[in-house]
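Are you able to produce any protein sequence you like plus the matching backbone structure tokens because I've never seen that pairing?
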Amino acid sequence: MFELQLLLSILTLSFTSQSYSSTSQLSILHHPKPNPLSISVIDFGAAGDGVKYDTVPIQKAINACSATVSKHRRQCHVIFPPRKYLTATIFLKSGVVLDIHKKATILGGAKLEDYPKDQSRWYVVLAEDAADVGITGGGEINGQGLKFVQRFDEKKNVMVSWNHTGACLGDECRPRLVGFIGCRNIKVSDVRLIEPAYWCLHLVRSDNTTIRDVTIYGNFNSPNNDGIDVEDSNNTVITRCNINTGDDAICPKSSTGPVYNLTVTDCWIRTKSSAIKLGSASFYTFRNFLFDNITIVESHRGLALQIRDGGNASDMTFSNINMSTRYYHPSWWGRAEPIYVTTCPRDASSKAGSISNLLFVNITATSENGIFLSGSGGGVLSNLKFINMNLTYKRWTKFPDGLVDYRPGCQQLVNHQTAGFMMEHIDGIVVENVVMKWSNDQSMRWNNPLDFRPSTVNNISLLNFYSRSYQQ
């Protein structure tokens, strides 16, 4: 039998060597992919003075690039030389990449008439049902979000809403910055996304996206200016990004379908809300997520799972994360929790979801509050592992503690003693190689490393768990 297998292997190798000649090998080596085509917006009449609207010439350049893609079957770059380009919504098309050069800026208009009638299409840059699209070049897209601030407030800015025009309902009537809806094969790299009036970079029902070397900045006191929202989108990689914004930094949402295969690595985050937040839109499954080598600085919450609408979250790893979390103002959801894992019905009409198979490993945190793990009667947390963690708890702001924050929905704010780990409605938790230190400052009132009720928490394993107070 062995001799027969060996003979077949030799024959196969001989056939392959003959059919794949040295000439064909050289042909592959010396015929790289052709360079992408390029078209400049200046050639189509863009003024680039930051005052006159350049929407028409920009869109003409994109359309011409798209026609070139169809003809030559090659990707086409729309070039923005170093100038400022004021525009209403521009529509990106298949095979087209916006190449915004360094010191070039696309400015989003601040008027209602700058955007389509349909609120779901309110973006400065929008791609719909497109493939092989992207943004790059080292330049900037700026939503001029500060033009939407009606009153500046260090607690939370009051924002201009187009609700009063009847264009939409609610106080979140503002345009997003960049959107990909129903797209595939997206690449966003080496670009600055600045001052969105609402969400910044939004993926909707899209597949196979890479976001690399992107800087996102939003006003720290403006609400709803999320960094990256991954909504109903799959196979997403986010790496080497710097996000500094007032609301959630990276936020997967499952509104109309599942979200799976999300990888986030090598990022730096500062936010007045949650650095990583799953939900709160959580109607479908979240699965196969990896968050690795992330630095979180002075955020209101660190790693947050908020399952409120009956969905399920499972199979996730949070590794090699260094963070600091602090209190800001009670109007923002969160109480400075480094890790916040919760599932409960949003309201009486909602179902309880579930969370399972989470691994937190190699985590260092300095925080003003403890870890909060809360399932619910209809949706327990199961198989949670916390391994190799160094937790330091101390206070450096003057906001009152002694509250547990379930928001959004659920029980809202509840008076409760502060604890290093607060746990309820859990089945299966491993805490291994964890060092917990807390300041002996009398204002903190720390005296309980673990807080749980045996009636709702089962199957606990503690190995090398060490806790003590320390002198500041």
Remarks:
- Residues 1-31 have pLDDT under 50 and may be disordered.
